[in-house]
Amino acid sequence: MGAIDRYFGFDEHDTDLETELIAGITTFLAMSYIIVVNPAILSEAIQIDGYEQPEIFQMVAVATILSSVVAISVMAFYANRPFGLAPGMGLNAFFAYTVVLSLGVPWQVALAAVFVEGIIFIILTAVGARRYIIELFPEPVKFAVGAGIGVYLLFLGLQEMQIVVADPATLVTMGNVATSAVAALSVVGLAVMLVLHARGVRGAIVIGIVLTAIAGWVLTLAGVAEPGTLVDGNTYQQITGGGILDLIASVQYDFTPLIAGFIDGLGQITDDPLVFVLVVFTFFFVDFFDTAGTLIGVSQIGGFLDENGDLPEIEKPLMADAIGTTVGAMIGTSTVTTYIESSTGVEEGGRTGFTALVVGLLFLVSLLAVPLMSAIPQYATYLALVVVGIIMLQGVADIDWQDPAWAIAGGLTITVMPLTASISNGLAAGIMSYPVVKAAMGEADDVSPGQWALAIAFVLYFATYFAVDAGMLSF
């Protein structure tokens, strides 16, 4: 224990082994849904001769876990930061639905594009370019990121709890707790979690997640709720039918066909180099700013930022996602990035790489029971996002709302994130508006050439993205 303490610097970061363990478990539970969701998305776009969709699903699940473990190991031992990493949501959907299914780019070539993106990230991180660009972010944007992510997390959590639902007239409205079993159980689980948190109970988030998941299974097994309502229907049938051991034994661990596909993709890059470059550019741009926003936002609630809103030695956690992306592409998954769910572990007191190490070990253990990960209902894990989202709103106090440039750039950063379901879009709104407002105020001299360049880069990015999304480009 003494060696672990000294290596990760528990005393220096005012933490201890128990706190770091609880923080790691919390982060893992909050982001473990990716083990099921990522293969569900990517397996729709990946076809391999001789293999059925369920087998491909399990291959991608294994690749998801292994790429996460690699990236988290770098985060733990090299960066010594309490952040979890895994294939990113949004980017996996872009990979599957836009690049492969819409543009017609072979999935093998799409993996090659992610690989090239990862190599570029490694090079830019090594020479300090990524750190330089992130430090160009206007101050109001840096200080608004945490609150923006907080509102985003709140929105995501309330949607999964079915408290916020779709509405044709207003886009969203309040769900009916009286008719939705998920909403009713989620409200109770959230109430327990908030009470425990307010009373300062250590591990309140973990306790809330576990109790809610257990309650969902008890109500289902007792016949109060239909299978598929509070728990995953397929998992229920597999567990009650063949048993847990049969379920575990059914996993397809051989993911070498995905590696073979990646190698084939490298040989097809020259078939249409223009589209390949545009796909790499889009992956690169979204991942760059999503990761930057997440690192700054989560670091803000952990007290890791300096007086300028910068994260010291940010190039180290950036290297973790760069290596994870590169390795992930080689073994068959989309871009790996830092997860906003890391904020749940930071809120529980995680301050060092040991928190990340716990997350990585739990991902590794989950290899033994890939199908069982779906036994944890997603709404139960999303309760944590609501609690952490509320806590992260404290970031609005760091913004000078009397200064028009701060108010506009910060306000847009905070609101655009949840409304467009994108951290990078929120950053874009703040970064593009800041120099324009400063110039309008007669303070253009306060805007650096680099900040103008960032704003212009976002304009070019959106022009490219909209062209790709509209189908103006095809492979």
UniProtKB/TrEMBL annotation:
One of its GO terms (molecular function) is purine nucleobase transmembrane transporter activity. Keywords: Cell membrane, Membrane, Transmembrane, Transmembrane helix, Transport. The keyword Protein biosynthesis does not apply. It is found in: Cell membrane. InterPro entries: Azg-like, Azg-like_bact_archaea, NCS2. It comes from the Archaea. One of its GO terms (cellular component) is plasma membrane. The chain crosses the membrane at residues 21-41, 56-78, 85-103, 109-129, 141-158, 178-196, 203-224, 244-263, 275-298, 318-340, 352-373, 379-399, 406-432, 452-473. Pfam families: Xan_ur_permease (PF00860). It is a multi-pass membrane protein. Belongs to the nucleobase:cation symporter-2 (NCS2) (TC 2.A.40) family. Azg-like subfamily. This is AGZA family xanthine/uracil permease-like MFS transporter.
